[in-house]
Design a protein that fits this description.
By secondary structure, the protein is mainly alpha-helical. It is 68% helix and 2% strand. It has helices spanning 2-9, 15-26, 29-49, 54-82, 89-116, 118-124, 148-152, 159-172, 178-184, 192-198; strands spanning 141-142, 199-200. Strands 1-2 form a two-stranded parallel ribbon. The longest helix has 29 residues, at 54-82. It is rod-shaped and about 100 Å long. The mean pLDDT is 88.
């Protein structure tokens, strides 16, 4: 509020500096141009008022009476852009929670397709973020077909564990569940709940 009211409190004399500050703060050429314009107007007004010419004095007075409210109104009009209102952190948290729930819903929808129509799931490339696709499955990974680098990005997994999964898969065939994969590949039990949230096992 203080920034915006400076032009009013100083009869317009602080308007150029006010907008120059805004230009630097926001990195805006528009505010810089405004500062230059107000500066030229202020210089012209001062020059006109410091003469003995009655016409120029009247002109300078008109400039003063014009720039004073104009600069004040301009500052108040853009103050929210110069000093944007910060969104409380709690709002960011709420958005993050809603987004996480939304992604969980996408995974549930994709799992339903996997269970009801595996062929369609293959066609939609569910669980295959490594290939081009249009369907959003919420971050699922098909542990039976995804490459090692995708499996390694799953929660709790490492490159070594992912290579172990792929090697076992290539040698012995696909898995039917996360529990089977964990036992066959000797994965740490602690990561099974995390893997269960994101893995699918298409035939």
């Amino acid at each position: 509020m203080l920034w915006a009211i400076l032009p009013f409190l100083t009869f317009g004399f602080a308007t150029p500096g006010t907008f120059l500050y805004a230009a630097v703060k926001r990195g805006s050429w528009n505010y810089g141009v405004a500062a230059a314009g107000y500066g030229l107007g202020l210089a012209g007004m001062m020059a006109a008022l410091n003469t003995d010419n009655a016409f120029l004095i009247v002109l300078g007075t008109i400039l003063l009476l014009t720039m004073w409210p104009a600069g004040t109104a301009h500052a108040f009009a853009v103050r929210r852009k110069v000093y944007p209102r910060e969104v409380p952190r709690s709002h960011h948290n709420e958005n993050a929670v809603e987004y996480a729930k939304y992604r969980r819903g996408l995974r549930a929808d994709a799992r339903a397709i996997v269970a009801d129509d595996p062929a369609l799931a293959h066609e939609l490339r569910i669980g295959r973020p490594d290939v081009p696709r249009a369907y959003d499955d919420g971050g699922l990974v098909d542990a039976n077909h995804a490459p090692a680098e995708i499996i390694a990005a799953l929660p709790g997994m490492t490159e070594e564990l992912a290579e172990r999964v792929v090697a076992h898969r290539d040698e012995h065939g696909t898995f039917v569940s996360v529990e089977e994969m964990a036992v066959d590949c000797d994965l740490p039990p602690a990561i099974i709940p995390q893997l269960a949230e994101y893995t699918i096992f298409l035939p």
